[in-house]
Amino acid sequence: MDIRQLQYLVALDELRHFGEAANRCHVTQPALSMRLRQLEDELGLTLVRRGHRFVGFTEEGERILAWARAVLAAHDGLHAEASVCRGQLVGTLRVGMVPLAGFEPIPLLQAFAAEHADVRFELKSLSSEQILAGLDTNRLDVGFAYADGRHERKYQLFEVAETTMGLLFNRHRWRFGRPALDWMDLESLPLGILSKGMHFRQSVDHALQSAGVALKPLVETDSVEFLVQSVSAGLCCAVMPLGSGLEQRDEALELLPIADSHTLAPLCLATRRGDPVSALAEAFQQFVRERVSPDQG
Amino acid sequence: MDIRQLQYLVALDELRHFGEAANRCHVTQPALSMRLRQLEDELGLTLVRRGHRFVGFTEEGERILAWARAVLAAHDGLHAEASVCRGQLVGTLRVGMVPLAGFEPIPLLQAFAAEHADVRFELKSLSSEQILAGLDTNRLDVGFAYADGRHERKYQLFEVAETTMGLLFNRHRWRFGRPALDWMDLESLPLGILSKGMHFRQSVDHALQSAGVALKPLVETDSVEFLVQSVSAGLCCAVMPLGSGLEQRDEALELLPIADSHTLAPLCLATRRGDPVSALAEAFQQFVRERVSPDQG
DNA sequence: CCGGCATGGATATCCGGCAGTTACAGTACC
DNA sequence: GGTACTGTAACTGCCGGATATCCATGCCGG
Questions:
Q1: What is the pLDDT of residue B248?
Q2: pLDDT tens, A23-78?
Q3: How far is B137 from chain A (nearest CA, A)?
Q4: Residue closest to C27, CA→C1'?
Q5: What single DSSP character describes residue A26?
Q6: Whose CA is closest to A138, among B137, B276, B92?
Q7: How far from A23 is each of A28, A40, A41, A160, B262, CA to CA, in Å?
Q8: Fewer CB atoms inside 10 Å of the end CB: C or N, chain B?
Q9: Does B277 touch chain A (CB under 8 A)?
Q10: Which nucleotide's C1' atom has the smallest distance to the CA of A27?
């Protein structure tokens, strides 16, 4: 069995196409096909459901796939470790982050990239559950996700911020004259909100529910862009996280904190536990620890 | 980079000899030497300190070695998983166990082997610390060790027995007429004990200390064999774990429990946490769970 | 102090196998 | 029938391994 074969397998899983997978692996399609069939022979299993085109993996294929990812993760870790030993950090750091978390990781990535010229990023916008699952299955190296002590057994966590809600509104249409609002204030306002199923919507629902406020949205959209534009136009207000910088998109926008709104689990930088530890993830975590102290993220 | 190269590296670490390592890998010594040098070139590092003979690994070599073990562990896991998919369990289960734990894992291994003809065992007698470290570094798959909630974050634990101490003595020389003894009873008796540094000695010391009993050993030996023979001859008594079957070695031997002696951490079956989970270790753990209920191990 | 021998690893050369390529065939779907 | 996608076939070049040899050190007796 060979590392290459496992790479082929994973590539096929991700692209679901023999030719494309072969491309990504920089080989021709017959080579990939043959090597995969060879792998199946060696293992004595059928991994791929074959039709006139790629159909999917068998049950066994999926299980082998999980191990293949584990092997490749360790393989990548070895190379990253070697890079560190050579005094350089290279490789691709796969970062997952929850959108609208009231915490902007991009500057962190920028600063990290500035110190380590050869590091590349693969940034994915995911829900907390997807991030933690991605860490499990070796699809991510680090993630910014909502997590708490419950998860500490499986993941290394470092709290980077508490999410505090605020109200985003058009300063020309509304004026409150107070530094902070109350959930009750929202009841009389036309609210815009993200569609059900989006992660931040769940956060807002949760916050509203614990505050005992009923929701009567005027606008419901699956696009943050549309929502901000609606607020900007003065059509409605919207609950948004503080610290997201949304209010700077338009001079008409203002973002006031809402009292008692940090009822969510804190936002944490999560990494896999395990020995040995990924050098890249380790370095990034260390970097974040030095840069971020909780409560000021 | 190739799996084989990593196998060579690990073999060299374990045997500390190029020729021997090559033997274990079923290749000739030049092949191993060249492939290792090639690996060093690829990584751009010096892994092995070379002299006229094998000296040791460099600092970087040690770190790479840890990753190599991780890769190989995942690699083995993949093959084990494949075996399971084929409906058979094959491979080598590396088991660590603390000696004199008052729990006999051998029958378990026998029963497991009876159900899975193609499973081999690699059994090592180690201290609890060594076992947990061995799980970390992929040198062991499962282990019977003293552990408690403190370790639950890193290891999957299943309590198989509480270690209860007993007094092993010659029934012809001593007679107590009670079903259980007290720590105080030991103060007037000539005691035999294992040398300092052996794991069970620490357990005994710990138990005696918490019972407030001072220790005046008559016999001190680093051999369990000698100790049992001393007791058998009537020279001394010895604190031993219940359930070890020691009393059956000689009809003159008797083993009486000591009240309040289960002050140790419980003996647990420990396995690595991680995704994916080793099929062999998983099956064994499941097997043990079905066979063993705590308090009757 | 020195020559011979054993040990252990590096080097040189040859060879066979296999991964990958190119070209082509088969098959479902439009 | 054309297109898109995968499997098959023959060829080729690379590379990993074996065998033979060399080199350095350490140990020994004389």
A1: 80
A2: 999 999 999 999 999 999 999 989 999 878 888 899 889 999 999 999 999 999 99
A3: 7
A4: A52
A5: T
A6: B276
A7: 7, 21, 23, 39, 63
A8: N
A9: no
A10: C20
